Amino acid sequence: MKMKAKLVFWIGLAVLAAIVIYHLNWDLVRALEFSTVWEYREVMVWALGMSLMIALIATAIGLVVGTLLAIVSQSSLPILRWIVVIYVEIFRNTPILVMLIWVHFALPILTGFTTTAFQSGLIAMGLQSSAYFSEIVRAGIGAVPRGQWEAALALGLPLRPRWTEIVLPQALRIIIPPLANLAISLFKATSILSILSISELMTVSTRISNFTFKPIEVLTVAACMYCIVGYLMSRGTLRLERHLREGER
Amino acid sequence: MTVIISTVSLGFGVIIGLIACLGKLMERGIEYQLATNFIDFFRTIPEMVLIFWVYSCLPLLFDLRLSAETCGILALSLYSGAFLAEIFRAGILAVPREQIEGALALGLPKIPVWRFVILPQAIRRMMPAFVNFLTELIKASSLLSAIGITELVYQASTLGAQTFRYVEFLSAIALLYFLIILPFSLYSRRSEMVLVRRTGQ
């Protein structure tokens, strides 16, 4: 079985490699010049910083709004619970691109406020991330043992400390790994903001590649930058997860 | 168009995912390394960057003339292949070890073990994640408007620009996406609950 699986794997790989090698335009590969990208290194690193900053702000907005939504979703009023469910379903089930275009082009017509591309990007990402975060926080709150709630109630703790002292700290510890994963996908989603040409990494690299006529070099480097940062972030998450699990024992 | 592209890339994605999953299940050796690197790379690279890379670099590199649709499908297939490989693997690994050992101890040959013991349970376990990914894929297909494929978003923004009725068209596609994705999302929510109840995890 293992031999057969290995064989299938290698045959697939060999066919793929043969196709790639046969069709590759070797003249072009030899003419690749990565030095042009090096000239723009500062701009690209700044753009990467911009991407990270947008992701960070979106994470912060999402965390705050999402936690509030999750608290509201535990309320005893059915109307409030329904509002949260509808909000979450709407923003989880529409692509961020559609939201982005909607916020940027349709919202100003409806409300009369014009937003800059940067603002609409943040609004759209904040809406989306708060919906996702509220689901995660809700799951975390659900995972806090029932006994903790009952003990807090039995001790006569008022509403505020019941949440801030008992439930949320425990819930947050449980949900740190999924939160970190979501932050990584928000970082990936910042590339979508290039549609509105906010000067983050994707926009800047497309601009450079149009300017220098070297799309392959610039885009490959940009892809690698995203990949490396994303990889480091996910490595960090794994580390954190392991650390938390050890702390529990 | 959105539906066609999503379906075709899902099909290719399943094939790529199965191969990569096979490699990753080896647990060591060159196959494992290759599959892991492939999966990690395509999972960490943003979809948008992948789409642009395939669209503007691949035709140059291979001296091919690819239509935007082909590029879009290729990019989404790679993207879904990497994600599906992990979903498949998680499903297969979630099958309790005793089940496999029990089947082997009963003297079942390897292929029936896969066919009747591992796969049915693995598929049931991976269904919620799979459907969840399907919604992600449909959402990612909206990004293809950036390379000029006439799917929902592209169509709506061109029509909006022609008729100056942005609000109507954009709200309409937002609603349309919502309606396409909602059944999947409800299904995955339900089946997750059923699974939790049944396996007690």
Q: What proportion of the residues of chain B form beta strands (DSSP E)?
A: under 5%
Amino- and carboxy-terminal Cα gap of chain B: 39 Å
The biggest beta sheet of chain A is recorded as: none
Provide the gyration radius of chain B in Å.
20 Å
Based on secondary structure, the structural category of chain A is mainly alpha
Give the mean pLDDT of chain A.
82
- Helical segment count of chain B: 9
End-to-end C-alpha gap of chain A:
39 Å
Kindly report the greatest chain-chain contact and the residue count on each side: A-B, 52 and 49 residues
Short account of what is shown:
The complex is a heterodimer of chains A (249) and B (201). By secondary structure, chain A is mostly helical.
Description of the molecule:
The complex is a heterodimer of chains A (249) and B (201). Helix content of chain A is 84%, strand content 0%. Chain A is an all-alpha fold and 249 residues long. In chain A, helix 4 (41-73) runs antiparallel to helix 10 (201-212). Chain A is globular and about 75 Å long. The two termini of chain A are 39 Å apart. The mean pLDDT of chain A is 82. Chain B is an all-alpha fold and 201 residues long. The longest helix of chain B has 34 residues, at 166-199. The two termini of chain B are 39 Å apart. At the A-B interface, helix 1, helix 5, helix 6, helix 9 and helix 10 of A face helix 1, helix 2, helix 3, helix 4 and helix 7 of B.
Main features:
heterodimer; A: 249 residues; 11 helices; B: 201 residues; mainly alpha; 9 helices; flat
What is the secondary structure topology, with strand pairs?
The complex is a heterodimer of chains A (249) and B (201).
Chain A: H1 2-23, H2 26-30, H3 35-39, H4 41-73, H5 78-92, H6 96-111, H7 117-143, H8 146-154, H9 159-189, H10 201-212, H11 215-248
Helix pairs in contact in A: 4-5, 4-7, 4-9, 4-10, 5-7, 6-7, 7-9, 9-11, 10-11
Chain B: H1 2-25, H2 29-44, H3 47-56, H4 58-62, H5 68-94, H6 97-105, H7 110-141, H8 152-163, H9 166-199
Helix pairs in contact in B: 1-2, 1-5, 1-7, 2-5, 3-5, 5-7, 6-7, 7-9, 8-9
